[in-house]
Amino acid sequence: MPSLADTTVLNNFAQIRRPDLLRSAYPDLSAPIPVWNELELGVHRESVPACDWSWLKILDLTEQEQAQADEIGRDLGVGEAACIAAAVYRRLLMLSDDWAARALGRSLGLEVSGSLGVLDRLVLKHVLSLDDPVVAKTRGCLPRKRFATRASLQVFPAAGGVHPRWNPETEAWKAPNACSAEL
Question: 18 to each of 23, 124, 169, how far by Cα in Å?
């Protein structure tokens, strides 16, 4: 599914030096120019590790998308606003760990996922196992009652089934999941 990421998700995978995992989960992943600029600024300030992002598609916003991003940007950061605007107009899955951006995206009808959703997708695709150290680190932040994809049920059988708002066709949440924690 065509998708785009905001800086929070890109940063999380950069911090663990595994942007390749994002590529495995979403080979067609893109990011708007403002998101790319935020990530590059983090690298320049040495708060984000330099990684190979040569595969990531960088999007120019259309005039219409930029106008919406400017409006949204009054309440959110520039990167999040650009991400939401592009996702709305292009009908893309949005990857974000910013709770306010996720909530606004959902209110505009977007399918939204985040870093934990990426990891879950990788487990479902058998790219990672539940025993992988990257996945194991997330176990403490996954609420037993609400996080319930097929992969996570192996870790949290008390979840009792697939969350009714999980879309198995796109392997993305249609509505908020309970874990907003970052990697």
Answer: 9, 18, 26
Please enumerate in sequence order all residues whose Cβ is within 8 A of that of 40, keeping only pairs 6 or more positions apart, or say none.
Answer: none
Query: Quick one: which of 6, 2, 28 has its CA closest to 114?
Result: 6
**Number of alpha carbons in the 13 Å side-chain half-sphere of residue 13:** 27
Contact between residue 108 and residue 80 where contact means Cβ atoms under 8 Å apart = no
Q: Are 27 and 91 members of one domain?
A: yes
Chain segment 51-85, per-residue pLDDT in tens: 999 999 999 999 999 999 998 888 889 999 999 99
Structural domain including 95 reads 3-114
- Using alpha carbons, list the distances in angstroms from residue 91 to 1, 3, 5, 13, 173: 10, 9, 13, 24, 15
Is residue 18 within 8 Å of residue 124, measured between CB atoms?
Answer: no
**Comparing C-alpha atoms, which of 67, 64, 72, 80 is closest to residue 32?**
80
Do both 61 and 47 map to the same domain?
yes
